From TrEMBL:
UniProt keyword terms in alphabetical order: Oxidoreductase, Thiamine biosynthesis
Ranges of residues in domain FAD dependent oxidoreductase: 3-320
Pathway(s) served: Cofactor biosynthesis; thiamine diphosphate biosynthesis
The protein's name in its UniProt record: glycine oxidase
GO CC terms in record: cytoplasm
Any GO BP annotation: thiamine diphosphate biosynthetic process
One Gene Ontology term of the molecular function aspect: glycine oxidase activity
Reactions accelerated catalytically: glycine + O2 + H2O = glyoxylate + H2O2 + NH4(+)
Enzyme nomenclature, EC number: 1.4.3.19
The keyword Zinc-finger belongs to this UniProt entry's keyword annotation: no
């Protein structure tokens, strides 16, 4: 019997894979699917989310994106990848110069991404303002609905609704408690809050949605993203370390103003939800994955901005490590990059 502490997407995905391999599993969480994974937009964006000086993170992101379709099939998910592709747009010329610097980095890593003029971008997404300075197309970055995926996984795996504590730890336990993992181990985790909105996006009279693709924007050097999914448009997300758990008025103001600069008609949409979630951040933005030397429990946390994307890889590596599957040399390198001891 394996014990999974934490029923966010990382814990649920790991438990579902263990169960799919024929193992007995129990998941412990007082309030499943209620923390970071509940608020996440659901972008699977290894290319569009590349940032400078995060080299150890890129192979993890690319590998997990590659494994996602197989993972969804293994856990029998009713929701598949939404293959919308992603456009990254620049608010002004300085933003465009930043976009092109990142494009160089993306292409150096062999990622599929190409320059578009503003009018080419508007041919793909006519609701974008003619005022954008230019864009980059990332056709391979897609999205999923994290809430729908977690609802499905919660139907598959048994959850004990209680807080886990030290007696639950041991070699057959994996701790996927997000920020809560710091209650068990001395880990350098910190909450990085993000404000995020969900808007109603009814189709127009011709049945067309306002937006089809994920659009990420840089506006006056600030990032903003728009994720269209059915009749919903997710608008996110700020990044703040002020420990304020409620959505912040100033953050919401920034998001709406920056989004309206690239997609003016967003002002016509009704607001469905305004919320804020806490990302489990680490000092180098790379997750924490490995055995705790004291209890021998497996730690799987610190997925920071990319836990939805990284869930496929985290779940497979977690299930492999617990059940004694020998890691391939490639996996060994990925695991090494996430060693929780790397800061000591
Ligand atoms: C606004 C926002 C937008 C985001 N957008 C994206 C995105 O588009 N794409 C992407 O890849 N990532 C995104 N992320 C990041 C992503 O949400 C996280 O990296 C991911 O959800 C982390 O998942 P997790 O399962 O580790 O943690 P969580 O989802 O936080 O789950 C941890 C679980 O552990 C439980 N727990 C804690 N302590 C205990 C205990 N003692 N006993 C039992 N259970 C415990 C909690 O109740 C919780 O259910 C976003 C995050 C935010 C906040």
């Amino acid at each position: 019997m394996y014990t999974v502490i934490g029923a966010g997407l990382i814990g649920l995905a790991t438990a579902a894979l263990l169960q799919q391999r024929g193992h007995e599993v129990r998941v412990i969480d007082p309030d499943p699917a209620s923390q970071a994974s509940h608020f996440a937009a659901g972008m699977l964006a290894p290319t569009a989310e590349m940032q400078f000086e995060q080299d150890p993170l890129y192979p993890l992101m690319f590998r997990s994106a590659q494994e996602y379709p197989a993972f969804l099939e293994l856990v029998d998910a009713p929701t598949t990848l939404i293959r919308s592709g992603t456009l990254v747009v620049a608010g002004d010329r300085a933003d465009l110069s930043h976009l092109h610097d990142v494009l160089d980095l993306q292409q150096r890593y062999g990622a599929q991404a190409e320059r578009l003029t503003a009018s080419q971008a508007r041919t793909l997404e006519p609701a974008l303002t003619p005022g954008i300075a230019g864009a980059v197309s990332v056709p391979g970055d897609h999205q999923i609905n994290p809430r729908a995926l977690m609802a499905h996984l919660l139907e598959q795996v048994p959850v004990e609704r209680r807080k886990a504590d030290a007696v639950d730890l041991g070699p057959n336990t994996i701790v996927c408690a997000g920020l809560g993992a710091a209650e068990f181990f001395d880990l350098p985790l910190r909450p990085v809050h993000g404000d995020i909105l969900r808007l109603h996006m009814p189709a127009d009279p011709a049945g067309e949605p306002l937006l089809r693709r994920v659009v990420r924007g840089f506006v006056l050097d600030r990032p903003v993203y728009l994720v269209p999914r059915g009749d919903e448009l997710v608008l996110g997300a700020t990044s703040r370390e002020d420990l304020q758990p409620d959505p912040l008025a100033g953050g919401v103001l920034d998001l709406l103003r920056d989004a309206a600069r690239i997609l003016p008609d967003i002002q016509l949409l009704g607001i469905k939800e305004v919320s804020a979630g806490a990302r489990p951040g680490t000092p180098d933005d790379v997750p924490l994955f490995g055995r705790d030397p004291r209890t021998d429990a497996l730690i799987s946390t610190g997925y920071f901005r990319h836990g939805i994307l990284l869930a496929a890889l985290a779940a497979r590596l977690g299930a492999d490590q617990l059940s004694g599957v020998e890691p391939s040399p490639d996996d060994q390198a990925l695991i090494q990059a996430m060693n929780p001891e790397r800061f000591s």
